[in-house]
């Protein structure tokens, strides 16, 4: 893949303090994606970052449900929802990008999960699978047809974003050494199989060239 193809964008998913070691919802070895992603950012002319951006009373937080514990699953109006520790609360240090991430090259920072009543894993749709973030229109109006995804976490926000990207007609690649997973009850293997079956190219950063 030619990283500088004018119709290709790098999308960096949720590389935020709360998903890195010491954060409220730390992904194992999450900080290790940063140098890989920084190297990719150097290669791409079009860079987009997503940022989890929850209000303090977000419905996905276990703290808002009597008897709810982190990683329980409950039914909300749009379907099954995993309950999470409070994380990436708007305006807090946990919601900030990792301090070493070279995010200043980004042409767009897309905030998601800001609606109190619905979670948002995908960069394209809220978890009701209908409410759009607007990213699809942004990419298509700019003529960006090929997407390279990386970030946190492989089996949730990266996978949901990649699957939606393919469904919307984008040629989609996930750079696995630039991702780390939460892996709840086999969720990583399931996500990898689902992405591969949908036509997402799963690769390593060394295969991305200028």
What does this structure look like?
This protein has 210 residues and is α/β, with parallel strands linked by helices. It is 21% helix and 21% strand. The chain is built from 4 helices and 8 strands. The protein has helices at 33-43, 135-141, 154-167, 187-198, and strands at 8-13, 47-52, 73-76, 79-82, 108-112, 146-152, 171-180, 201-203. The strands form 2 sheets. It has a 6-stranded parallel beta sheet with strand order 5-2-1-6-7-8. Strands 3-4 form a two-stranded antiparallel sheet. The longest helix has 14 residues, at 154-167. The chain is globular and about 50 Å long. The model has no long low-confidence stretch (mean pLDDT 95).
Largest sheet: 6 strands, parallel
- Shape label: globular
Order of helices and strands: EHEEEEHEHEHE
Low-pLDDT runs: none
Q: Which structural class do the helices and strands define?
A: alpha/beta
Question: What portion of residues is helical?
Answer: 10-25%
Q: So how many helices?
A: 4
Beta fraction: 15-25%
How many beta-strand elements?
A: 8
* Nearest-integer average pLDDT: 95
Q: What is the topology, as strand order, of the major beta sheet?
A: 5-2-1-6-7-8
N-end to C-end Cα span: 8 Å
């Amino acid at each position: 893949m030619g990283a500088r193809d004018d119709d290709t964008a790098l999308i960096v998913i949720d590389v935020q303090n709360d998903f890195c070691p010491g954060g409220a919802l730390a992904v194992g070895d999450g900080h290790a994606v940063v140098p890989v992603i920084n190297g990719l950012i150097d290669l791409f002319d079009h860079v987009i970052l997503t940022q989890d951006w929850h209000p303090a009373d977000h419905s996905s937080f276990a703290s808002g449900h009597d008897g709810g514990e982190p990683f329980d699953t409950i039914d909300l109006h749009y379907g099954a929802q995993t309950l999470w520790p409070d994380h990436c609360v708007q305006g807090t240090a946990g919601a900030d990008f990792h301090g070493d991430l070279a995010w200043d090259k980004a042409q767009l920072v897309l905030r998601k999960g800001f609606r109190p009543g619905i979670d948002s894993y995908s960069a394209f749709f809220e978890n009701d699978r209908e409410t759009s973030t607007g990213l699809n229109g942004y990419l298509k109006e700019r003529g960006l047809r090929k997407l390279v995804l990386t970030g946190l976490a492989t089996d949730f926000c990266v996978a949901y974003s990649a699957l939606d990207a393919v469904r919307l007609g984008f040629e989609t690649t996930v750079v696995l050494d630039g991702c780390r997973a939460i892996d709840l009850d086999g969720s990583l293997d399931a996500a990898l199989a689902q992405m591969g079956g949908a036509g997402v190219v799963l690769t390593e950063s060394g295969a991305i060239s200028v």
